[in-house]
Design goal:
Radius of gyration of chain B: 16 Å
Number of helices of chain A: 13
Number of helices of chain B: 3
Strand content of chain A: 15-25%
CATH superfamily of the largest domain in chain A: Thiamin diphosphate (ThDP)-binding fold, Pyr/PP domains
Number of domains of chain B: 1
CATH class of the largest domain in chain A: Alpha Beta
CATH architecture of the largest domain in chain A: 3-Layer(aba) Sandwich
CATH class of chain B: Alpha Beta
Largest sheet of chain A: 7 strands, mixed
Distance between the termini of chain A: 63 Å
Strand order of the largest sheet of chain B: 2-3
Largest interface: A-B, 28 and 18 residues
Largest sheet of chain B: 2 strands, antiparallel
Number of domains of chain A: 2
CATH topology of the largest domain in chain A: Rossmann fold
Strand order of the largest sheet of chain A: 3-2-4-5-7-6-15
Order of helices and strands of chain B: EEHHHE
Number of strands of chain A: 18
CATH topology of chain B: Alpha-Beta Plaits
Structural class of chain B: alpha+beta
Number of strands of chain B: 3
Oligomer: heterodimer
Helix content of chain A: 25-40%
Strand content of chain B: 5-15%
Shape of chain B: elongated
Chain lengths: 405, 97
């Protein structure tokens, strides 16, 4: 029997965490993640969730607590946003390098300075190269299901997973969410098996100084050098592609809900114009595609669900027939262009796809992006392609860009 | 076939030599004068400040006091701390072997 509740994205995430039954939770409140941290502490306080809730003084500490607890064999959870995530930066590398399956929600918010509490994705984008798998959700149901999948993925490939969802747009917006029962989740999610466990019975040193070269240890065993450890991480990312897809497929079989593995597609079969993005802006793009089809433009949407590992092959396939591409994204790599756009172009390099790509920098610091604005932008992209304009462009959507200095 | 490490994280078991023979880094070595070393002079366990202060744990709390030259990095802390001035740091190039 289904249990559908009208809840916010933060509550959906909290319910998923409750079902995953972590042993340790450490979170420091920050807008717009706060409600998630509060609801979890309530579960623990009421005894509904048998977990240790560690009250920390900062995000740096919350990640450190998760790392330590994971090292002694606990399933762990934390969540943050914006500058809180940036404050974790060093520990993000530490979790990934230690190959710990930490699961964290990043409730996407613009980064200061200047202060913004509103949504964009610059926070998680700026942590792209920390060795975390990054999954982006488009609605509250997907948040719940993705958190559960995140544990499966993390604990299979031993990489930490960041589940990203847009602040306020999802975190504070109520939608119907089907909450799976505990039995179903148990069937999907086996208990965490640590690869290395720190215990007084078997003393070990974790993460000592590694020398550049491989070398023999005291027992004559040839040990990896720093570079081999890094290669193993990259190999785990390569393997995680099929694990992400398998986790999504298996959850779809059990729950009847499939959000896509690495990417998802909306009306792409015959599409000439493809809109793409991550998170809620891609959801908005599906409405834009509907509107464009009413106008007679065959539009579709490719949603990027996994940003790291990047869905290179899936993208090359999904965009094979595209005549024009509009990338909408809520982040930028200063001095170049939107980060998703760069990766998309790189994935298309060496293929036969020659469609012009317009990169729309959108919704920074919560700037509103309406469906009709996406429609207008995508139509402009399509018309330029039809007119034979093959130039790739970066365009700031809904932004006054007149030069004033 | 060579034995290889299958760890995916940076793990090692505490054991002498886990970081290689660090004594190779030394350019001066501590040499103990038994005529001045307090435990030897008194013939009973005493002092052992060299054992206490050695950052590498290569000094023994024995009579006579010994130092494991495979891992002594030659920092000179034992010589500095010895209240009897029983330890001299001798440059490796001046040691005849």
């Amino acid at each position: 029997m289904s249990d559908v509740r009208i809840i916010t994205g933060n509550e959906a995430a909290a319910l998923a965490v409750k079902r995953a039954e972590p042993g340790v939770i450490a979170a420091y409140p920050i807008t717009p993640q706060t409600k998630l941290a509060e609801v979890l502490s309530e579960y623990v306080e009421k005894g509904e969730l048998k977990a240790e809730y560690v009250r920390v003084e900062s995000e740096h500490s919350s990640m450190t607590v998760c790392i330590s607890a994971s090292t002694v064999g606990a399933r762990v959870f934390t969540a943050t946003s914006s500058n809180g995530l940036l404050y974790m930066h060093e520990q993000l590398h530490w979790a990934a390098g230690s190959r710990l399956p930490v699961v964290m929600c990043c409730v996407n918010r613009g980064v200061g300075a200047p202060w913004s509490i509103f949504n964009d994705q610059q926070d998680s984008f700026s942590q792209r190269d920390t060795g975390w798998i990054q999954l982006y959700c488009r609605d509250n149901q997907e948040i719940l299901d993705t958190v559960l999948q995140a544990y499966r993925i993390a604990e299979e490939v031993y990489l930490p997973v960041m589940v990203c969802y847009d602040g306020f747009v999802l975190s504070h917006t109520m939608m119907p969410v089907d909450v799976p029962d505990a039995g179903l989740v148990k069937q999907f999610l086996p208990p965490y098996t640590p690869h290395t466990i720190l215990s007084p019975e078997d003393p070990k040193t974790i993460n000592p100084v590694f020398f550049a070269s491989r070398r023999e240890n005291a027992d004559g065993v040839l040990c990896d050098g720093y570079m081999e450890m890094r290669y193993k991480m990259q190999a785990a990312f390569d393997r995680s592609r099929s694990v992400i897809t398998a986790a999504s497929d298996e959850w779809a079989q059990l729950s009847g809900r499939n959000h896509g593995g690495m990417i998802w597609e909306y009306m792409t079969e015959d599409a000439d114009l493809l809109l793409t993005g991550m998170g809620s802006i891609a959801t908005e793009a599906t409405l834009a595609a509907d509107a464009l089809r009413v106008e007679g433009i065959r539009a579709g949407v490719v949603g990027i669900r996994a940003f790291r590992p990047f869905p290179k092959e899936e993208i090359a396939q999904a965009f094979a027939q595209a005549r024009a591409i509009a990338v909408f994204e809520k982040c930028i790599s200063y001095g170049y262009e939107g980060g998703v756009c760069s990766d998309l172009k790189a994935a298309l390099y060496g293929t036969d796809i020659r469609a012009p790509i317009h990169n729309y920098i959108s919704g920074l610091g919560g700037r509103d992006v309406k469906t009709r604005e996406l429609v207008e932008a995508a139509r402009t992209t399509f018309e330029a392609a039809l007119a034979g304009d093959a130039e790739n462009k970066t365009i700031w959507l809904n932004c006054h860009t007149g030069v004033r200095d | 076939m060579e034995k290889t490490d299958t760890n995916i994280s940076g793990v090692c078991t505490p054991a002498p030599g886990e970081a290689g023979k660090t004594g190779e880094w030394r350019d001066a070595r501590p040499v103990i004068d038994p005529a001045k070393c307090i435990p030897e002079v008194k013939g009973k366990p005493a002092c052992f400040l060299c054992w206490l202060y050695c950052p590498e744990g290569v000094v023994t709390m024995t009579i006579p006091v010994t130092i494991d030259m495979d891992y002594c990095k030659g920092c000179g802390i034992c010589a500095e701390e010895c209240p009897a001035k029983a330890i001299q740091m001798v440059r490796e190039v001046d040691i005849d072997e």
